[in-house]
Here is the input.
Amino acid sequence: MSASAANHAWLPDHQLHVAATLAHVDQTIDRVARLTHDYSKAGPLSLTNLAQGNQSHLTVAAVAPLPQAIPRLIADALTQLRAAMEHTLYTEVEHRLGRPMTAQEARCIEMPACASADDFTKWLRHGRRSQLQPFHFGAPLTERIRALQPFQRRDSDDHPLRLLVEHTNLSKHRTPAVAATRLGAIYPDKPHPDLTVALPLKLRSQAGDGLPLRVGDILASGPLDARIPISVMSTVSLQRPHTGVWNIAMRELEHLEEWVRTSAIPVLITGTRDVTPLPPQLDIMTGHEDLRGELANSENTTAAQRARQRMMAQIARSDLVDLLSGHESPLSPTEVRTWVDTLDDISVLQKTDQLIRVVQVPTSLLGLMQELRDEVRARSPQTEH
Here is the structure.
């Protein structure tokens, strides 16, 4: 067995299916990330200034409708995350029984989300479930399920299993995931003592989300005769059904995907989180004779991490164009932009990182900028023969 394959030896053959389900989740989250990025990049907010006395108010004139694919894809990803746990539990019970379950037994297999130890005991004692050996008190699988329960945390409402169950119960039985465009941040490009904003500083520092956005909302107010440049950022956010709290959708998906992949699945199968996590980017678009072998060749960067890389690379591309075509540069912005567009996100970030490392050393900075400009010229159509 290769070293790479040994990293996932903890995953038995009868549980290989869960790796494919997690890969499907990653692909779905990637679709959410790309849609939300495109929506945000297009600028969903239309703003206008409204004069009132000696004050000018920055108000919301319109909010672009959220693509309906977004809440449905969010619901799909969350449902598949729950399915990954349910399927793993079902397979583990049947494996431990050493036989297929009857129809009655199969109906009692589910992943509970109990808010108290008493509720968990009641769940174990319920009907046919209490007769299955894997669910007996003290049995290894029972203790693994117990370790993953919401009551193990002080605030059970924020436990990932509770969140996952609440989200999926809503999307399965009532409505697609409740997503909306909300105010993420608003701040002046330069501080001004007479400016007031709708989103207090304390809200900006919280882990959750900001205010709802409605047409006519006042986002900032300042003196009528002052010109104050303001940056306004919106978020695509998801509401937690049981608490009403809003959280940035990609942040919620990342949190729950990571917990299921790195905690819930390993604990259900091995009893510990101390294993090499399954890779999120397993190729499931192709049929594989050796699915286990593919695990060793799969990428470990999650959809959420890739989304952050894309956003950072977008900013870095703009910075590279400004820097390499700036004052006294022999290159035009169009030439540099054409070159930048040939680079993938990782390359752009690497080149930006190189510049950041030498920014305090003028001679090194100038030398590196010259190297990059030479690279632009080498790829410029005017230099090709």
